[in-house]
Amino acid sequence: MVNVVTERKAEESHRQDSANLLIFITLLTLTILTIWLFKHRRFRFLHETGLAMIYGLFVGIILRFGVHLPQDLSDVTLTCAVNSSPTTILVNVSGRFYEYSLKGEVQDSKGHDVPNAEMLRKVTFDPEVFFNILLPPIIFHAGYSLKRRHFFRNLGSILSYAFVGTLTTCFVTGLVMYGCVVFMKVIGQLGGDFFFTDCLFFGAIVSATDPVTVLAIFNELKVDVDLYALMFGESVLNDAVAIVLSSSIVAYQPEGDNRHTFDGSALLKSLGVFLGFFSGSFAMGAATGVMTALVTKFTKLRDFPLLETALFFLMSWSTFLLAEACGFTGVVAVLFCGITQAHYTYNNLSAESKSRTKQLFELLNFLAENFIFSYMGLTFFSFQHHVFNPLFIIGAFLAIFLGRAANIYPLSFLLNLGRKNKIASNFQHVMMFSGLRGAMTFALSIRDTATYARQMMFSTTLLIVFFTVLVCGGGTTPVLSLMQIRVGVDTDQDNSVTAPDGMTQRSTKHESAWPFRLWYTFDHNYLKPFLTHSGPPLTSTLPACCGPIARCLTSTQAYENAGQLNDEDTELILNDGGGLMYSDMMVSTDAHGMPTPSTSQAGLYSLAGTSDDPLDRELVFGGTRLVLPTDEPPDPLTSFPPPPPSPPLLDPLRHRV
Amino acid sequence: MVNVVTERKAEESHRQDSANLLIFITLLTLTILTIWLFKHRRFRFLHETGLAMIYGLFVGIILRFGVHLPQDLSDVTLTCAVNSSPTTILVNVSGRFYEYSLKGEVQDSKGHDVPNAEMLRKVTFDPEVFFNILLPPIIFHAGYSLKRRHFFRNLGSILSYAFVGTLTTCFVTGLVMYGCVVFMKVIGQLGGDFFFTDCLFFGAIVSATDPVTVLAIFNELKVDVDLYALMFGESVLNDAVAIVLSSSIVAYQPEGDNRHTFDGSALLKSLGVFLGFFSGSFAMGAATGVMTALVTKFTKLRDFPLLETALFFLMSWSTFLLAEACGFTGVVAVLFCGITQAHYTYNNLSAESKSRTKQLFELLNFLAENFIFSYMGLTFFSFQHHVFNPLFIIGAFLAIFLGRAANIYPLSFLLNLGRKNKIASNFQHVMMFSGLRGAMTFALSIRDTATYARQMMFSTTLLIVFFTVLVCGGGTTPVLSLMQIRVGVDTDQDNSVTAPDGMTQRSTKHESAWPFRLWYTFDHNYLKPFLTHSGPPLTSTLPACCGPIARCLTSTQAYENAGQLNDEDTELILNDGGGLMYSDMMVSTDAHGMPTPSTSQAGLYSLAGTSDDPLDRELVFGGTRLVLPTDEPPDPLTSFPPPPPSPPLLDPLRHRV
């Protein structure tokens, strides 16, 4: 009989779980339908994530105030003589042993005043769900869809913003918050402990800007590619920095809550943790990416797209598990795995797998993202330990504003000293305005809500996310037009409209800083040929003594390609500087997906012929191949529409808002 | 300090979980690479699922005998005065409350002789994972990819095999097993209780045949379409029957283990449970399918394939959750949802969403299937309560053989009395031989391994699965050629090669039984126009009094299509009988995905002109549109290659083995 009761209860619990998940699925379905309605009616003010959040808020209100379930009083409190809380305990109930697993510590288990706490507790997910299930596909997708060309061209600036900038934001925010907390303590507005490390932790979690909302708008409006690359690169990488940074700050105070003075060895340890976590996760991510590239290169898996896609998916997932199993940060590893996969493996995939993997991760990203945002809305009402402190909230908003400003403006000034292609002040304002906080900030803040400080942080963070997503996200379009940012830019087109002399072709390469050029040469000569079918054969780039190895590692396709560079990234990185002359002609596809170049072939070939540098000539031929990827050039009389009446050069400003 | 220790333990446990999952991911990756190697070398003897199983076996051996981890002695046994085992308990450890959730009853918690039990226990998944995560995508994919044309033509036979046949198998197997168990009891070979209901339960779980392995081979070899439809339809539906049947049998003995005599009311209750579960799950599945069809019909979601795919995925998933939340069987609901989605919603999707949804569920199915099979291999060594009883095993093999025979041969005989297109005896032998047991049988048997009877069942079931997948699966190709089954059949081609008079065109419709014709007419006149854009407008099929409603529900596209039937299924169901004359000409696409009909248009149109029945003429036009989905007929002189030199009629036997 006991057994039957237990089984029935387990069944009941399973049904309840299904019903809860169903709430979220319904929410997401509603969100999708409303998004469609918005898109259909060209209503751009509210992004889908904002919408998901608002729906979540409504459901949260209903669950909190509308539904009244009979309280489940089956909780049994056992008072035990054990002096630790093991992960598993066996309970001996009249001769039968039952296994129980630890779910976590419960605060003030009885005596809360919320009427249907049980119901609310049921719709609460384990915070680790975010880190282990929902964030990885989002972050991987971000890495996998980095616009490589402009990303690599702005690599230095992006890394500066992501590392130096995020650290600056974190410390500035932390210091402002510390000032605020000290002030609150003085006037007696603080209801619990709040230490300096808590302030720094808060700084770390709110310094992760979200790539989702703003970039969706950027993408839709086809905003200036350099601005896009800077924003996207920064927000993707600073997620990684923020997550490692917050772990390091937690590592600073491992001894419990009793010591909160400055400690040199703890600081060193934190620094070590930061560097170790970051480099370890980076290495894991890159390693599995490289392994996938090698496997897809040296097998003929491309004949079976299903197998290839499955392998790609599993290897990418294994990055996460490997990093977590080794004690590194899975989410960070997944990001670098995504970048590596996009840079190398993607070139080895069959055309079908390319679209399959893209679509798969696009879908996973979409679902996970909207799930997180609707959960965010819901948890605003279902979370039972909110601590809303007006002073703290005002301080926090001030702090994130100052923190963001301390990141963008000084760094941009410093970067502009070295950049030929300056970051204009209107770009800086947009970057300042568009620093939304989203999924990563939420996941980091909900991870631990045990103490008073963390609860106050969580509540404040939720408000910050709501505000930035709804107000900053919604205001992006007006701000873009206010700041006169170019929109409607073809992503494969360059923005150097200011130098119409046709000689900027080689400038991108030369204008790049030397570390980038060094990396580019290494990547192009050794890594690309080693990991993909493109680039020059290794036999020609490696020294003669490595001949046998080079022959083994070079695929037959690489030899075939030896004369002609069909390395997409090369074109993307090096050739874009010369995009002016035929920028509007490059890769504009008609409705049937067929390329429709709008100038004749002769012009291109003659342009290639006038170039002195043989590499550049190759590159222009590369560009030609990009425009017309057919082996026999089709007859322009029958296949292509006539060139458009107005050549793009006549009106360089027509893309401005 | 206590807190820190707990956290560290949770972290350790998380790392261990990641490592375990990594084992499976590595296994799957290895499987994929080996499958590729097999496919690459055209080695067809072992299917991927068999391979996954064998790899799982190896890893199981290594974990069991190779790895020796220090025993984790953190289990604490509490002896409590509570007289039930609640799902959640709070443990008061020196003032702090920890929440523990019930994992299940533990048998002989101490004193087992396996050296690294902890390690093995760690790689053991909760059996509910199979029902809630892994089976749904497999079953949905099966429903979604049912070959509709031949499925509906053989619907009566398929339903007979699935319902009457599976019930027969279950009872015959159960009776044989009961005889075996009684014999074992007499000679003292039985180490525990084994009741008649246990025998029936065993019969139910081993009566679920697996559609995976054999049909993969059938698909690859392009086996006769009717045989394919019979096998696929039966094995997909009998999964549903078996799962509901096993629940009903469990419901027969709810009072505990003390009464095992015949009980009329319990039998009635079982019957009620069976009918209730089945019809409820069917209704849920069909309802969400219909809802998805309506949503995709009445919104213009097709302009945004990502949204459409996400909606499709979420709605299909919600079927499962809805059914589980209402206490029905989610897996069964998902099957019928899949069939409904394929029959209605699929027609409303945009071309991109069609391929996206297909590819997505193909991938999910592939991953889940291989995961289950590798887990099966692993659990053979990691499961710690195996009861291998030679007599029982021999009895079980005999019982499944007899049970399968009692399903196929008598039913085929009865069905052949009514069928015009007889089920040949070689088809029957193949169906008899190819009744593999797979994922569903495994999931059902691992769900409950608490008692001696269930443990013996589980061990025996594992052996049956191994044997059938490896031996029967591997032997399918030889058996097909031994039985002289036609292979290399175009799936869009009919098998009625024996009536080359060109007048079989209408025979398929007339040869179908009246319930099918009734359903077909209803579906074609009312459901199709209501749920999709195809079929005749509702305004013309509904009575005049329903005019306003009909106008609301009919899409503009349906009016446009009114003259011409572009209902794919119609063609598939009704037109296939006439496929003989131009069967090899239909829908053969060239490498660029463009249709290349191999006879001139004139022949088709004249064929259409000679038909008396206006419906049939429409249908032939429908076939024409299928061949050439362009609005302006292209010039045959420039667009199409010349007709092939040998018409298919000259050599009707060339497709035979």
Automatic annotation (TrEMBL), chains A, B:
Extent of Pro residues compositional bias: 635-650
UniProt superkingdom: Eukaryota
InterPro entries: Cation/H_exchanger_CPA1, Cation/H_exchanger_TM, NaH_exchanger, NHE-6/7/9
Main location: membrane
Topology term for the membrane: Multi-pass membrane protein
Keywords linked to the UniProt accession: Antiport, Cell membrane, Endosome, Ion transport, Membrane, Sodium, Sodium transport, Transmembrane, Transmembrane helix, Transport
Cellular compartment(s): Cell membrane; Recycling endosome membrane
GO molecular function: potassium:proton antiporter activity; sodium:proton antiporter activity
Biological process according to GO: regulation of intracellular pH; sodium ion import across plasma membrane
Domain Cation/H+ exchanger transmembrane: 31-480
Keyword Transmembrane appears in the UniProt entry: yes
TM region positions: 20-38, 50-67, 129-146, 158-184, 227-252, 273-295, 315-339, 360-381, 387-406, 458-480
GO cellular component annotations of the record: plasma membrane; recycling endosome membrane
Pfam families (UniProt xref): Na_H_Exchanger
Keyword Zinc: no
Chain segments carrying region Disordered: 626-657
Classification via NCBIfam families: b_cpa1 (TIGR00840)
Family stated for the protein in its record: Belongs to the monovalent cation:proton antiporter 1 (CPA1) transporter (TC 2.A.36) family.
Designated name of the protein: Sodium/hydrogen exchanger
